[in-house]
Structure formats: structure tokens, C-alpha cells
Amino acid sequence: MAVDREQVLKEAAALLTRRATTSMDEIARAAGISRATLHRHFAGRDALIRALEERGIEQLARAMDAARLEDGDAATALRRLVTEAEPVAGMLAFLFTENQLFEGEAVNAGWARLDGRINALFRRGQEEGDFRIDLSAAWLTEALYGLIGAGSWAVHEGRVARNDLNHSIVELLLGGIRRSMEK
Fold first, then answer.
1. Cα distances (Å, whole numbers) of residue 25 to 1, 14, 22, 70, 136
2. Do 149 and 90 contact (CB within 8 A), yes or no?
3. pTM confidence score
4. Helix H or strand E encompassing 156
5. 120 near 78, Cβ under 8 Å?
6. Cα–Cα distance between 164 and 167 in angstroms, integer?
7. What's the whole-number average pLDDT of the chain?
8. How far is Cα 34 from Cα 177, in angstroms, rounded to an integer?
């Protein structure tokens, strides 16, 4: 039986986004393969995490493309981004907290490309006069990742309704970064 690598990654992501301490045995069982087969495809947990990170980077890049970050005003583009990123929020939450993420040039380059696109969106909002200028675009990018991750965990734990997630993230972020029109 041929092993579908994408299916294994999908199962691993589903488990790890719910419980980061999921064992390789549990991942193999969920994917319907033996632990030995899993290890033939991923030398260990680190290799699996790196593959998941590459997958997460690709998924977020597709979400950014679908959100059309360059179209319309920055606040509307941000709303679209949060909506498009929602299906991968659990994966982002997991990746955002994994300590292996800070290793490897290729992976860091992938995150740098994503960060650059989001930073550009926040800078554009600042230049348009809609977003606060006393908070850096880099900080706003990290805040966005954090809110998406925290929101995903809150939905998973039943503290926030899935239907409220996008609205909650966008309104909290925009409410905190919009430039006050009052003097």
C-alpha cells in the first residue's frame, strides 16, 4: 500500500493542532500506518514538524493570495486575510508555538516572505492614515499571528464560537491599531 504523504501530514496537523504532545505512535495510528512506515517518511518528530511547517507556510501563502492583500483599503484587506486564514488557524497556532521553527534557512526564508507581505499590508494602512503609526508593522504582524493562534485554541477549547472567530480577531486588532480621529 502506497503511503499518501499529504494524508499523513493532514492527520499529523489535525492531531498536533489539538494536542502538541501527540506521539509519533498516535500520528501513525491516525494516518493508518505503522510507526516504522511513518519513520521511513519522516526520520523523527523534528522532520515531521519541518514538513508541517513547510505545509503551513504554503497554506498561509495561498490564504494571502486569496485575500488579495493589495486590493482596496488595508482594513478591508486585513478582514479578507483573517477570513482566508481561518481554515489554517489551528496549524498556525501550532507552528507559532513550536520551538523548532527557528531553525533552518529555507524555513526562515518562507516565514520571512509571509511576514514581508503582512508587514507591507500594515505599512500601507499606516501610510493611508488608517492604522496607528506608533506600533511597528513587524509588531502588528506578530500580534496578528498571536490573535489567530489564540483564537484557534479558544475555539478548540469551546471558549469562543467558531462563527465569532474572524469578527473577534479583526475587531480587536483593528480597534487597537486604528488611529484615533479624536484630538
1. 19, 14, 8, 44, 43
2. no
3. 0.82
4. helix 137-156
5. no
6. 6
7. 85
8. 49
